[in-house]
Structures are given as structure tokens and as C-alpha cells.
Amino acid sequence: MNAQLLWWGPLGLGAGDYVQLLAHFAMLSLLAVGGAVTTVPDMQRFMVLEKHWLSDAQFAGSVALAQAAPGPNVLFVAVMGFNAGGLMGVLATLIGTLVPPCTLTFAATRWSRKHERGQLMRALTTGLAPVTLGLLLATGWLLLRPAGGQVTDFVLAGLTVLLMTRTRVSPLWPLAAGAAAGAMGWV
Fold first, then answer.
1. Which of 8, 88, 164, 184 stands the most exposed, by the fewest C-beta atoms within 10 Å?
2. What gap in Å lies between CA 84 and CA 58, rounded to an integer?
3. How far apart are CA 60 and CA 40, in angstroms?
């Protein structure tokens, strides 16, 4: 593969195309609640239907290849970027996907540390605590159901929730205990 094809891709995208790719993926990254995979339909609309940078088969292959490979599932954006625009496409999609949410997270963390004793921060943490607990309980429920959902499983899950909400014990201890119990065949 020659260097020009490697860097700029098979379509020979121009600088404006790479800026559009970066901007679109940056916008999607801020909407990706639940992970980048939740924005795949709009990525497909943009790259396949609107820009014609990839065919449906190339798009599906990009997602499938990256999902089958070990590592973070967000890597599919790099494969799509490479298939459309070579290494410059990889840079555009990865920078667009990773930099905005990381920047937002760093800014929110700095703000929250600066205002950790403030009334707004207390209201946010107080209000979000039940939401977080509810999401964790829903996840636990969904994970226990396919496992057979025996009474002992739900009792252990309930005890773990009580331990986590009433003490400052690290969550790694119940996790390690559950792993040990599973390895010994107790649950």
C-alpha cells in the first residue's frame, strides 16, 4: 500500500471532508449516552447515505470487525475512519469521538471539586444518588434473571446493596466474594 493511500484513504478526501468528519463525530460524541455504539445509526446516515464515503457493507464490516476485536468497543470509529479516509480519517474520527467528552468530563470534574461544598453540588449529588442506585439495581436484576434467579442470588444481591449503601466498604470486596463463590460453584 502506498503512503498516499495509507494517509488519505481510497477516496482522496479533502481537508474540508476531514473537518466535516471530525465535527460530525464530535457532535455525536456529546450525544452518545450509553456509549458510542448508540450513535451508529447516525454515523451510518452520515457516512453511507449522505456522504457516500462507505457502502453499507463496508460500514457494517467496520463495526463488526472492531466489535470482534479485543479492546474498547469505541474502536469501530477508527475502522470506519480508516476505511473512508485512511490514517487521517482515523485521526478525525478518534479525535472527534474522544476529545469532546473527555474535555467535558475534565471541566465538570474541576467545577465539581471547586464547588463540592456548594448548595448546587449537594443538590446534584443528593438527587443523582437514587438514580444511580436505581440503575445499579436494574442492572443487577437484569444480570440475575438469565442466571436462573434463585432466591439465594437475590438475597446476596440485596445484602450487597445494603452493605454498599450503609457502609464505606469498597465495592471490590463483594465483587471478589461473588467471584470466589462462583468459582467454587456455590452460586
1. 184
2. 9
3. 10
Residue 130 — φ and ψ, nearest 5°?
-65, -35
CA dist 38 and 60 (Å) reads 14
Q: Which residues, including other chains, have CB under 8 Å from residue 85's CB and lie 6 or more apart? A: 8, 9, 11, 13, 17, 18, 21, 53, 92
CB proximity list for 28: less than 8 A, separation 6 or greater: 36, 39, 42, 43, 96, 97
User: Which element (helix H / strand E) includes 166?
Assistant: helix 151-166
First to last CA, the chain: 53
pTM: 0.65
Taking residue 166's Cβ as centre, other Cβ atoms within 10 Å add up to: 8
Residues 21, 96: contact at Cβ < 8 Å? Answer: yes
Unique residue bearing C-alpha cell 446493596:
161
pLDDT tens digit at each of 187 positions of the chain: 577 777 877 777 899 999 999 999 999 999 887 678 888 999 999 999 999 999 988 999 888 887 787 878 788 899 999 999 999 999 999 999 999 999 999 999 999 899 888 899 889 888 888 887 777 677 666 666 665 667 777 777 788 878 888 998 888 888 788 788 878 887 6
